[in-house]
Design goal:
Largest sheet: 4 strands, antiparallel
Number of strands: 6
Bound molecules: zinc ion
Strand content: 35-45%
Helix content: 10-25%
Radius of gyration: 15 Å
Shape: elongated
Number of domains: 1
């Protein structure tokens, strides 16, 4: 599998580390951790995974390249990489 880094171009999979599903961290302040609902929301963010069979957005780190976090959209059924973006471009 090859990933086309937006900064380095096409690179072999061995240069990257996958973190997992790309999603937004819930806005839970430390003061809110007394609330069971806030703890549940944060625990779901940390531990729950969608693990879909099909299109999936994931965080990947180009550790042996530009040291940049990327959002890789790929099809988990055939490992086709559909899109790659710098994570900083994905954030509002
Ligand atoms: Zn790179």
């Amino acid at each position: 599998m090859r990933i086309t880094c937006p900064h380095c171009g096409p690179r072999d999979l061995i240069e990257f580390t996958v973190l997992g599903e790309a999603r937004t961290r819930p806005a839970v302040a430390v003061e809110d951790l007394d609330s069971p609902a806030a703890v549940d929301a944060f625990a779901a963010y940390v531990y729950d995974r969608a693990n879909p069979a099909g299109i999936h957005r994931e965080h990947w780190f180009h550790g042996f390249g530009c040291q940049t976090w990327l959002v890789v959209t790929r099809d988990t059924l055939n490992h086709a990489v559909l899109a790659v973006a710098d994570v900083r471009e994905e954030r509002p």
